[in-house]
Amino acid sequence: MNEKQIGVDYSELHKLDSPANRLIRESIWGKEDDIGQQSFITPSYLDELIHRLRINNDGYVLDVGSGAGGPAIYIASKTGCRVFGIEINDVGVEVSKKLANKSGLQENTEFFLGDAMNMPYEENSFDLAISLNVMNVFKDKTGLFKEVYRVLKPSGKWAFLSGTFDMPDDDEIRRKMARGYFIPQYYDSLNDYRRKLELAGFIIEEITEYVSDFWVQVRKWGDAYKKHSVEIAKEQGEENTQYHIEYFDTYLKLVEDGKAANHFIISEKSE
Hints:
The protein is an alpha/beta fold. The protein is built from 13 helices and nine strands. About 50% of the residues lie in helices and about 20% in strands. A seven-stranded mixed β-sheet has the order 3-2-1-4-5-9-8, with helices on both faces. Strands 6-7 form a two-stranded antiparallel ribbon. It starts with a helix and ends with a strand.
């Protein structure tokens, strides 16, 4: 991604990150593809999302778990839509606002510190809600989906990218996958997602599985932790660093064994 092409300078975000995180991000994305994501996505995922969901300058978009705001700002810069990010981490909200102001997109974006399980928005507020590789931090996904349903307009779309898992009945694998990025993880299979979306009232329209690129992204994360393990351990501690090396190795093996995948699920609120 060329920063000049979209009119957004992400260098401020790179400077705000810790030294170890900067090394990780440089290894995974380089400067070209680093837009502030903390996940497995790249700008090409967002370009496809914009195209498939037909996002335009009339749209009101909710980003659930907006992180440091890079993807939301990327979408706003590409389409002219209004994007509202909700994020439970105060540092993420602070970085998001700074990036939006520096990019001149403060009129197109708004970032709120809060819990997506209890959002501050009125019913029927948004044309579209999205979420990018953060679903696994939500234990009560049916409750989340119902809250998203509440704030969407009739026929509004709910589209999210998430890892899906057919987790083996293996205590050691479950231990190694119990937390990622220091956050407890709650895994669901694709069938779990289907059932929970339907319980919340959504009609599933489309499901796309990403295979080869997902494998590449998971491997890049693991390789980055191994390459910069000494620097990462200085910030995160040796135990956490080694845990995440195991985490990404286990994740990659699950992908290779067909037990983990990355799915993009598009659903619609019934009228």
